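Fig. S4 source data, part A: sequence.
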Amino acid sequence: MASIKVTKRYHSVTMAASRKGRGPAAERRPDLCHYEGREMRLPTWTAAQAEDWLGRWAMNLMLINVSTRKLRRAVRLPDGDLSAVTGDGTSKSAASRRFVALSTERLAEWMASDLSKLDLLVIQIDGLHIGNDLVLVAALGIDGEGKKHPLGLVEGATENAAVVQTLIDNLIERGLDPKVPRLFIIDGAKALSKVIRSTFGRHTPIQRCQIHKARNVIERLPKSLHASVRKALRQAWELDDADKAERLLRNLARRLEHEAPGVAASILEGLDEMLTVNRLGLPGALRRSLACTNSIENMMGTVRRVCRNVKRWQNAAMALRWTAAGMMEAAKGFRRLKAYKQLPLLRAALAAHHANHVVTQRVEPKAEAA
């Protein structure tokens, strides 16, 4: 074995996170020299630098709304014995550079992750407006055990068909099987329905968010009608019989034709997609969990909280990095779907719905040929 001699000179100073929790500190590493005179690097020190503890530490603090200006204070105890040192990696600009590098790396890994092993029964799609001219469209999946998974994210000027198609194409490229029957839950944008049906089949079950619909209807009515209309909507959505629920909603629209014709038309618009969970014959608790986009809305709420300190969006890449980081942060606190024990009923209902329409599609061409 070659001999190694350790000099008594200490000239290299490298910043690293203290193992005692006191924060980043300037630590002098010994300069090891081979007997031939060339410098040798300490394997332990190289490994510590590769871990980038300070970068992950900075990113974690920024995700819980510690601003870059306060990072230096946040990584030290109030009365600690380690003072700030120039070049210790805790400056505002250094923290920003570390966040950009780590968030870019994690975004790329996430958007290339394999989805083929996820047993997804439900996919929710929603948009998030960033500024005046940028929209990010995100997808959230719910598997057969009720666990939630952030799936993907794309940017666009508006929530149009091209943007949604890009998102869905990305999911399919990463392993999402378009032949597996699933329930899609959306906020009501027509572009979403159009792309979903063109990609997954025209009979794909789509549920429009009932909470969005109720809010849009109520906000356009005078206060004197709020209570009665809200009660009628809730009564219809709670019915097990989808045909009866549809009749109730049509009667409501008929009553409002003279006082609010625009609202009456809004109630009838997309009526079939409003009652999808009812038509599938799902139990009440599962219907309430799947009749709205609450899961993805809660995730978007976490994104807004994470991005609260961002004062100016420089470009779409920055918005993607921050939003993806927020989605990953939200995933840490995800809980199972409330009615997850009833998800086998959804699987059976989707299979029956799919089989029924496959048979129908086979019969129709034969009838036309005859």
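Fig. S4 source data, part B ends here. Confidence is low (pLDDT under 50) at residues 1-23.
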